[in-house]
Design goal:
By secondary structure, this protein is α/β, with parallel strands linked by helices. It is built from 19 helices and 17 strands. The two termini are about 35 Å apart. The structure holds adenosine-5'-triphosphate (ATP) and magnesium ion.
């Protein structure tokens, strides 16, 4: 039987593996020691204990791998072939289909792997490539031993692999803390086994890896006026808060429409508004106000904000001011917002740039009327410029069709064009033109509360669902 029993006493012997396997492992061990004189395969001070420290240590994951549903493994940054070569040797007699795939960017190391594989007639694929530059990889199992930190391995699994079932990792004494840290960003299940070769260490098999959504700061943006930005901010915020999410709305428009729409005043002095945060007079935590609605807070705005651009002209870091302040809020665990929604003004001014720099993602309301798409070209260009220079991970989360009129042919034409051009970035739900949506703000409440059964409310409830579902899709993409 090839299982971990054969290394119980830190000894590979004939009782547990076939004579052939044993001699192949020996051959490989000696090859490493010989090659280690010229290139650095293992650290010199582990040469004496190579059998335990490296060969047996690698071999102990065999129980995770010798399974019916596993035919391919990918060893990341394998170096000397630990554990990839060891596992290939052990699997040779167990599963004829089994194949080990290596990514090792060093020329000498990958040549060493090729020589060994050829000599021992192993079923392998050796890629002398940088794993970070690969895309759409498929494998049953990803293995990594001493290549990169866990968080980096997860990121590689998530972005560079299209398909995998498990990840197998070797963790040391601080492994539990490392896994704990990883749960901040990832959901996963794991099975662990005590290391047979090193006290306090363990090997784990990770399954169901999913990335937690960390796109929290979302700007509602379109430089065109009156397209439904503020209406969307107010009602998405209300919808999310009704779904038990904690939301902070930042009114970044001197018109202060989100402020009044959520029932606060935009005519008081500017001391407690976003203006005094952006000009450096106050911390953002000092100006956050509660609204009448549970879990929904607001940073208000008023007309003074329109002076900011001129007043801060000499400050070279001003584009980052909002980002810096919002980062403070997100790092303050007491605040624990699930989302920060920013209502942008109808311009591509400093305020909009601040929002683009601070945001993780954007929702673009698009009024289904003539010339609707033309305006977007300029917005897209601005977004690309910001990505290039100031915020590389910024993304468009979705485009929301607004003021949709079923009876008007133009609406469906604009819809068709938008879907054709932006594909699945366009939300399925389109918000209809509905007079209740324009009445609600004068009462200082979201339409979801003003008249929860009107068509506008139904649309914004469904939009909230779709917005939240996007995250589930992203989380399960791996
Ligand atoms: N689906 C809709 N049906 C009817 N009226 C709507 C709809 N959406 C928004 N409105 C109304 O249209 C006007 C403009 O909407 P809103 O203020 O949300 O747009 P905006 O993009 O924020 O405008 P601005 O660029 O001036 O900030 C408001 O009076 C609003 O109440
Ligand atoms: Mg507005």
């Amino acid at each position: 039987m090839i299982d971990s029993n054969f290394i119980k006493n830190s000894k590979i012997d004939f009782k547990n593996v076939s004579r052939e396997t044993f001699s192949e492992l020996n051959y490989y061990t000696n090859a490493i020691l010989t090659k280690n004189k010229n290139i650095n395969l293992i650290s010199k001070n582990t040469e004496k204990s190579i059998k335990t420290r490296h060969i047996l240590d690698s071999a102990q994951i065999i129980d995770f791998i010798d399974k019916k549903d596993i035919n391919t493994c990918t060893d990341l940054g394998s170096g000397a072939g630990l554990p990839g070569i060891v596992i290939s040797i052990l699997m040779k007699e167990r599963n004829k289909l089994f194949k080990m795939i290596f990514y090792e960017k060093s020329f000498h190391k990958s040549n060493f792997l090729k020589d060994i594989a050829k000599k021992l007639n192993l079923n392998v694929e050796i890629n002398q490539k940088n794993i970070f530059e690969q895309k759409n990889l498929k494998t049953d199992v990803i293995i990594s031993r001493a290549f990169k930190p866990v968080s980096v391995i997860f990121e590689i699994a998530f972005t560079n692999f299209k398909k995998f079932k498990y990840i197998i990792l070797f963790l040391g004494k601080t492994g539990k803390e490392i896994l704990n840290e990883a749960t901040k960003k990832w959901n996963f299940n794991y099975e662990e086994k005590k290391s047979l070769t090193s006290n306090g260490s363990f090997v784990i098999k990770i399954s169901n890896l999913k990335k937690k959504m960390d796109k929290k700061i979302i700007s509602i943006i379109n430089q065109k006026g009156g397209v439904g930005k503020t209406t969307t901010v107010i009602n998405l915020a209300a919808g999310l808060s009704m779904k038990e999410k904690k939301v902070l709305v930042i009114d970044l428009d001197p018109q202060g429409n989100a402020t009044t729409g959520l029932g606060l005043s935009n005519s008081e002095n500017s001391e407690n508004t976003i203006y005094s945060v952006l000009n450096g007079n106050k911390k953002i935590s000092e100006v956050i106000q509660e609204t009448k609605f549970d879990r929904l807070n607001l940073v208000t705005s008023n007309v003074d904000l329109s002076g900011l651009e001129v007043e801060t002209a000499g400050d070279s870091r001003r584009a980052f001011k909002l980002k810096d302040e919002l980062t403070l809020i997100l790092n303050d665990s007491g605040a624990s917002y699930d989302y920060i929604l920013i209502d942008c003004p109808p311009s591509l001014s400093l305020l909009t740039i601040m929002a683009l720099v601070a945001s993780d993602a954007l929702v673009v309301p698009l009024q289904t009327e003539f010339f609707a798409l033309e305006g977007l070209t300029q917005l897209m260009k601005t977004i690309e410029r910001i990505k290039l220079n100031l915020n590389p991970t910024l993304e468009i989360r979705g485009i929301l069709l607004t003021m949709y009129d079923r009876r008007n042919k133009l609406s469906s034409q604009v819809e068709a064009e938008a879907r054709n051009y932006f594909k699945d970035k366009v939300y399925n739900i389109a918000v209809p033109r509905n007079v209740r949506l324009s009445e609600a703000p004068s009462h200082g409440v979201p339409v979801l509360i003003y008249d929860k059964l009107c068509p506008g409310s139904k649309a914004y409830f469904r939009f909230t669902e779709e917005f939240l579902n996007q995250e589930k899709q992203i989380e399960t993409a791996a």
